[in-house]
Amino acid sequence: MAQAGAGSRIPAEERLFSLVLALLATDAGLTKTDILSTVQGYRQKFSRSGDNANLERQFERDKDDIRDLGVPLETVDSPGHAGDNHNLRYRIPRGAYELPTDIRFSPEETTLLNLAAMVWREGSLSAESRRAILKLRSLGVTTTEPVVGYAPRVRVRESAFDPLGTALERRQVVRFGYLKPGESEAQTRTVEPLALVQHQGRWHLFANDPETSTTRTFLLRRIVTQVATLPATFEPPAPGQADIALTELEAVWNSNTAVVEVEPGTDAATRLEKRRGSSTSAPGTLNLHYSDLNIFADELAGYGPEALVVSPPELRDAVRSRLERTAADHG
């Protein structure tokens, strides 16, 4: 019989987050059955009497994903079952996952971390985590409870992220409206999603265009319609699509350089000097990299007279047009 809540869709990142929390919560480790039957994102699909082959394959992919993220997932033999692969236990050793002891934070940094912890605490996963803790205890698993007290509470992603993530998992073709800068109407795009990647704080979709057999990168904030999932599916792409997308985005970022003059001691100077890759060519003159001209122009225009674009001309013109429009709007 299906479990309650089995019809609800659990985002992939929530499933991975729940898996990490569960594996951190016990020193002895969890068996595959423990994980699939208790952890949020797996338990909804787990059947004690049915076939869980697809769910086990999902778990194998998730193990690879969290290891790729640098999480030290390890396997250990169950007591009394040495060498028995069916009874392997999975865990994340706290000592290997915690920050090194020689790292120290300033009072200001500690304050920001505490504020971040307040945002995460008692969030959307906490009820599920508490339910999992109770179930693990009923199985005789000793848990370290404090780790399951943090959960994401605020979502700052674009609304297109979740449906694209689902389509990515299921290898389904998607369609959406995409509005490029300078255009008045959105263009309909039909693509095969290959990866969702974050670069310079913004989410991008790396996808294949079936009509041209070329890959394209889309900024999620420019998807202006709901993402429609089509019945068509496609073959799994070669591994490393996210790495390809990030390499291409990084190449664009490296190739775009702006020279900007800033007023010393201003907000513009403080913020722009701390941008990744920024350098000073003269007092008050910064060399800055950027990925998207229009997004960077929006940022620079927000500094008003504190920042003056020297080059390239197209960036200078874009900032000027924004300032002129602001002045006209305010009479």
Question: How would you characterize this protein structure?
Answer:
The chain is an alpha+beta fold. It folds into three domains: 12-149, no CATH class; 161-244, SH3 type barrels; 256-329, Alpha-Beta Plaits. It has eleven helices and twelve strands. It has a five-stranded antiparallel sheet. It has a four-stranded antiparallel sheet with strand order 10-11-9-12. A three-stranded antiparallel sheet has the order 1-3-2. Strand 4 (172-178) and strand 5 (187-199) form a beta hairpin. The N and C termini lie far apart (67 Å). The model is unreliable at 1-7, 121-126 and 143-155 (pLDDT under 50).
Number of strands: 12
* Coarse structural class: alpha+beta
SSE pattern, N- to C-terminal: HEHHEEHHHHEEEEEHEHEEHEH
Number of domains: 3
Task: State mean pLDDT (0 to 100 scale).
Answer: 82
* Straight-line N-to-C gap: 67 Å
Radius of gyration: 24 Å
Quick structural summary:
The protein is of the alpha+beta class and 331 residues long. The protein has helices at 12-24, 32-38, 53-68, 94-97, 107-120, 126-138, 161-170, 241-255, 267-273, 293-301, 313-329; strands spanning 30-31, 74-76, 89-91, 172-178, 187-199, 202-209, 214-219, 228-233, 257-262, 279-282, 285-289, 307-311.
